[in-house]
From TrEMBL:
Protein name: Diphosphomevalonate decarboxylase
Enzyme class name: lyase
Species per Swiss-Prot/TrEMBL record: Hibiscus sabdariffa
Domain Diphosphomevalonate decarboxylase-like N-terminal: residue ranges: 14-187
Keyword Transmembrane: no
Length: 415
C-alpha cells in the first residue's frame, strides 16, 4: 500500500431549532440535559454545514479548518467526538484506489477536517449543532461505522448538546435519558420532513455578531442560580413535551403555536431568573413578538409561532405558505431594509414566497400599508440584518461528488 493516498468523505448536515428548549445540563462533561427537548430540522438548502473529512498516512497530526481558518482540535468536545468515533471504526477497503485500512490502523492514522457553515457562526443560529452533527456523521461514513443515527447522536451530543438533534430531518426529540454514562441520552425522529410540509419558516437575523454570553456558560449559571429552571425541568417540560408530540403528530397548529411561544418565553424567563441575569433578546426581538401576538389575536387563531434561541434572532413558523406571505408583508413593512440595500440580499433562502406576498422589488416594499391589527406600527429600517426563508428539511446526507469536497483529494489540505 503506497503512502501517498488520501481517502475522503464529504457530508452535509442541517441545523435545527428547538420548539421545546434544551437549557441546563446535569452532567457538563458528557453533556446530559436536565430535560427532554424537541426541535424542527431546517432545510439544508438554506442552512447547513458541509464537512469534508480525510485520512492519509502522510498526515502528521489531526487538523481542522472552520470557514477557511485553522482551529485547534485540542478542546475536550472535539476530542470526545474523535475518540468515540475512532473506537467504533471498522475495516475500510477502497479497491479502486488500492487502499485497505485495518480496524487497528485507525488509532495511528491522522485526520484532516474542513467545515463550512452557509450561515453566521455563533450568532444564535445553532451552528455548533450542525457542525458537530456533520463531523460525527462524516467520520462515521469515512470509518465505516455501523452505528445508526440515534447511536451516532449520542456521540454528536458530546460535542454540542443540540447537535444530537441534527442527525435527523423533520421533528426530532432528544430524550434526556436516565443513565449516568449517558448511553440512553440520544435523539429519535418523531416524524419526517414530509409529515407537516405546510409549515413555512422565516428567520429574522437581528444580529449576526457573536453573542455576549455563550450558551455553555449561560446554562451553567442558570443551573446554579435559577429556581425557575428547576421548576421548569421537573414540572413543566415533561407535560409540555407530551403535548407537543401530540400537536406535531396531529398537525394541530393552534396547540403547536401556543406551546412553542410559551416554551420560548419561559426559556428567556429562566435566563432573566439567572444571577446575574442573561439578556439574549433585544428591543427588535420584543417588537417582533408584539407584532406576532397582535396578528394572531386579531385572526382568532394562531397564524405564526415564534421561538428564540440563545440570541436575538426570531424564528417564525407560519402555519402555511399563505400565512407566511402575509407575515413577510408585515415584517417588511415594520423592518424594511436600509435605503441602500437590495431586496435580493435582504431576503435569502426560498425567495418564491416574495412573489406570493406580491413583493417584487423595493418599490413594492415602500408601497406596503400598515397591517390592520397594528395601524400604529412604526417602520424600523436597519433593525433586521436580513431574513432567511426556509421550511422543515431532511437529515444529513453524504455528497458523492468529489468536486464539492472542501479538501484537495491529492494533498488533503483546504482547496
Amino acid at each position: 500500500m503506497g503512502e501517498k493516498w488520501v481517502l475522503m468523505k464529504t457530508a452535509q448536515t442541517p441545523t435545527n431549532i428547538a420548539v421545546i428548549k434544551y437549557w441546563g445540563k446535569r452532567d457538563e462533561t458528557l453533556i446530559l440535559p436536565v430535560n427532554d427537548s424537541i426541535s424542527v430540522t431546517l432545510d439544508p438548502a438554506h442552512l447547513c454545514t458541509t464537512t469534508t473529512v480525510a485520512v492519509s498516512p502522510a498526515f502528521q497530526q489531526d487538523r481542522m479548518w472552520l470557514n477557511g481558518k485553522e482551529i485547534s482540535l485540542s478542546g475536550g468536545r472535539y476530542q470526545n467526538c474523535l475518540r468515540e468515533i475512532r473506537k467504533r471504526a471498522r475495516e475500510v477497503e477502497d479497491k479502486e484506489k488500492g487502499i485497505k485500512i485495518e480496524k487497528e490502523d485507525w488509532e495511528k492514522l491522522h485526520l484532516h477536517i474542513a467545515s463550512y457553515n452557509n450561515f453566521p457562526t455563533a450568532a444564535g443560529l445553532a451552528s455548533s449543532a450542525a457542525g458537530f452533527a456533520c463531523l460525527v456523521f462524516a467520520l462515521a461514513k469515512l470509518m465505516n461505522v455501523e452505528e445508526d443515527e440515534s447511536q451516532l447522536s449520542a456521540i454528536a451530543r458530546q460535542g454540542s448538546g443540540s447537535a444530537c438533534r441534527s442527525l435527523f430531518g423533520g421533528f426530532v426529540k432528544w430524550i434526556m435519558g436516565k443513565e449516568e454514562d449517558g448511553s440512553d441520552s440520544l435523539a429519535v425522529q418523531l416524524v419526517d420532513e414530509k409529515h407537516w410540509d405546510d409549515l413555512f419558516i422565516i428567520i429574522a437575523v437581528v444580529s449576526s455578531r457573536q453573542k455576549e454570553t455563550s450558551s455553555t456558560s449561560g446554562m451553567r449559571e442558570s443551573v446554579e442560580t435559577s429556581l425557575l429552571l428547576q421548576h421548569r425541568a421537573k414540572e413543566v417540560v415533561p407535560k409540555r413535551t407530551l403535548q407537543m408530540e401530540e400537536a406535531i403528530k396531529n398537525r394541530d397548529f393552534a396547540s403547536f403555536a401556543k406551546l412553542t411561544c410559551a416554551d420560548s418565553n419561559q426559556f428567556h424567563a429562566v435566563c432573566l431568573d439567572t444571577s446575574p441575569p442573561i439578556f439574549y433578546m433585544n428591543d427588535t426581538s420584543h417588537r417582533i413578538i408584539s407584532h406576532v401576538e397582535k396578528w394572531n389575536r386579531s385572526e382568532g387563531s394562531p397564524q405564526v409561532a415564534y421561538t428564540f434561541d440563545a440570541g436575538p434572532n426570531a424564528v417564525l413558523i407560519a402555519r402555511d405558505r399563505k400565512a407566511a406571505a402575509q407575515l413577510l408583508k408585515r415584517l417588511l413593512f415594520s423592518f424594511p431594509p436600509n435605503s441602500d440595500a437590495d431586496l435580493d440580499s435582504y431576503i435569502i433562502g426560498d425567495k418564491t414566497i416574495l412573489k406570493e406576498a406580491g413583493v417584487e422589488g423595493m418599490k413594492d416594499v415602500e408601497a406596503l400599508s400598515p397591517p390592520p391589527e397594528n395601524g400604529a406600527a412604526q417602520k424600523c429600517p436597519g433593525d433586521v440584518n436580513y431574513f432567511i426563508c426556509t421550511r422543515p428539511g431532511k437529515g444529513p446526507i453524504l455528497l458523492s461528488n468529489e468536486n464539492v469536497g472542501l479538501l484537495d483529494p491529492e494533498t488533503g489540505l483546504p482547496k
